[in-house]
Design goal:
CATH topology of one domain: Aminopeptidase
Helix content: 10-25%
Shape: globular
CATH superfamily of one domain: Gcn5-related N-acetyltransferase (GNAT)
CATH class of one domain: Alpha Beta
Radius of gyration: 19 Å
Strand content: 25-35%
Oligomer: single chain
Distance between the termini: 32 Å
Length: about 290
């Protein structure tokens, strides 16, 4: 789970729900469009890419997709406590999505370090949103073993110094959400591929000692200019008991690196509760296209 200044979603689930869509026969990858979401009011760049205006109605759709996916559809039988908690979580997640979009856009527009993107998959014929994913340049805290965004995209005070030697920048994939009705179309695979292409364009040095599988930092080479190197790896976390997600990422070439733990909101019978969850950390080195090579 990517920790930032806002309430966050669960991590890396490849099978998620959304509003009901009439059953249809789809071909894998057929009529699926992957677009980068932009905050409302931000004009799309004139670079030939595909962009989606994430206005209020769009973020509501994305929020419903995420909530129903991670926690299932709400029911009156869940009781009044769960009903009120779900409403609060729903609003928090919608606010978080809107803030993340503005956060990433500010970083991109000002050329700041902690860049990121939210990619959305939609059906080209119907316009239905099929899924989305978040990818951002997070800070990894090697002592606490957590990934999180800084409060501001300018970065964390002390980063790159001896006092901040426990911090490193790592591209981090989270909140992969795919509509339950759209499984086996390759939506999740396309979204992950979009994130992999995205991070190969980021020019940020990661300062990772590859000899330490648990992610502890090695010695920094202060003579290196961080703007001269591409990000070399994409990281993510998956709950240990989420076998479908683990298999999904293994098939895409992600490897186990270490383990972490942290609290997540879990749906119980009558309420939502905070619970400690054990996770696997996984990593992949995306291939860069010829246009991205120096």
């Amino acid at each position: 789970m990517l920790r930032g200044p806002y309430v966050l979603l669960s991590v890396c689930s490849p099978a998620l729900g959304a509003r009901a869509v009439p059953p249809r026969c789809y071909g894998v990858f057929a009529s699926i469009v992957i677009s980068r979401a932009l905050p409302a009011g931000v004009p799309p760049p004139n670079d030939g890419g595909k962009y989606l205006c994430a206005d209020y109605l769009c973020t509501r759709q994305l929020t419903h997709l995420a909530i129903s996916s991670f926690y299932g559809e709400g029911s009156p039988w869940d009781g009044p406590v769960a009903y009120m908690q779900r409403a609060i979580i729903n609003q928090d997640v919608q606010d978080d999505l809107a803030k993340r979009l503005r956060y990433y856009e500010e970083a991109r527009g000002r050329g700041l370090r902690h860049i990121g993107a939210i990619y959305v998959a939609a059906d080209e014929d119907t316009g239905d949103i099929l899924g989305f994913v978040d990818v951002g340049l997070a800070l990894y805290h090697s002592r606490k073993r957590i990934f999180r965004l800084p409060q501001r995209p300018e970065g964390e005070p002390g980063y790159g110094t001896k006092a901040g030697a426990h911090l490193t920048c790592r591209p981090y994939l989270s909140n992969l959400a795919v509509s339950t009705e759209q499984r086996r179309r390759g939506v999740g695979k396309l979204l992950v591929a979009a994130c992999e292409r995205e991070v190969t364009r980021w020019h940020v040095r990661e300062h990772v000692n590859e000899d330490h599988a648990d992610g502890h930092l090695g010695d920094r080479d202060e003579s290196m200019n961080p703007a001269e190197e591409h990000c070399s790896s994409l990281w993510l976390e998956v709950s240990r008991d989420n076998q479908p997600a683990l298999l999904f990422y293994r098939r895409l070439g992600y490897e186990f690196v270490s383990e972490t733990s942290g609290k997540e909101i879990v749906k119980k019978r009558w309420a939502f509760e905070s619970e400690m969850v054990q996770r696997y950390v996984m990593r992949k080195q995306p291939e860069r296209s010829a246009s991205e090579l120096p």
